[in-house]
Amino acid sequence: MTERDYGGSELVVQDEHGVWTVLRETIAAHPEEVFSALTTEAGLTRWFPVAARIDLREGGSIVLGWDRKFRRTLTIGITAFDPGGTVAWAWPARSGDCTIPIEWTVKPSVEEGAEVILRMGPIAPEPESLIAMAEDGESWRWYLCNLRTVLESRNDMRTVRPL
Predict the structure, then answer these.
(1) pTM over 0.70
(2) What whole-number distance in Å separates Cα of residue 101 and Cα of residue 122?
(3) What is the DSSP letter of 98?
(4) How far is residue 65 from each of residues 22, 23, 40, 51, 75, measured CA to CA in Å?
(5) Quick one: which H or E segment has residue 114?
(6) For the chain: N or C, fewer Cβ within 10 A?
(7) Would strands 73-82 and 61-65 be described as parallel, antiparallel, or unpaired?
(8) 69 in any annotated domain
(9) Distance between CA atoms of residues 2 and 79, nearest Å
(10) What average pLDDT is seen over the chain?
(11) Could you say which DSSP state residue 93 is in?
């Protein structure tokens, strides 16, 4: 999977493949630290699940633990991995047995530290799918903000406002 640069700060983009959610967050941290927060067990648990197990490779998987004993879990596939700053997940769709690709790209930002780009999609431009995409986008925006606050100020918003 290649990173597409849509430029600007578009939240929703449509191309020949369908509709995409595109979220961007600039984080005042080294790009390697930011990428580690997306690709390591210790990094993920700082801002997203309570526990994680990772087989970090294309075709591998991530087990997200919503409790420390892994009684409540979600397993997602890793569909692409480039140690230079890109990892893609097969995220479960809200309905049916399909998944939605989520691609994370971390790029150096000379002035600011790192830019994180989350691309989710494509989905068909149907009302039901677009509503679900908007709801998912709102959740991912919150998690991206939490990632930023954890890395910049060591403040985990999950302790104040858990989802």
Answers:
(1) yes
(2) 7
(3) -
(4) 26, 24, 13, 5, 9
(5) strand 113-123
(6) C
(7) antiparallel
(8) no
(9) 12
(10) 88
(11) P
CATH number at residue 107: 3.30.530.20
Whether a cis peptide bond, with omega within 30° of 0, leads into 122 is yes
Host domain of residue 93: 19-39+82-158
Q: Do 85 and 106 form a contact (C-beta atoms < 8 A)? A: yes
pLDDT band of 31, cuts 50, 70, 90 = very high
Q: Distance between CA atoms of 151 and 125, rounded to whole angstroms? A: 35
- Strands lying side by side in the sheet with 18-27: 12-15, 18-27, 113-123, 99-109, 86-92, 73-82, 61-65, 51-54
Report pLDDT digits (tens) over 97-143.
688 899 999 999 877 799 999 999 888 778 888 788 888 888 899 99
- Domain assignment present for 134: yes
Distances (CA, A) of 48 to 11, 30, 108: 21, 19, 22
Q: Flag whether 131 is in a domain.
A: yes
pLDDT digits (tens, 9 = 90+) for 76-108: 999 999 999 999 999 998 766 688 899 999 999
Number of domains the chain contains: 1
Is residue 137 domain-resident?
A: yes
Pairing of strands 61-65, 12-15: unpaired
State how far Cα 87 lies from the chain centre: 9
Alpha carbons within 13 angstroms on the beta-carbon side of residue 160 total 8
- Answer yes or no: is pLDDT of 7 > 70: no
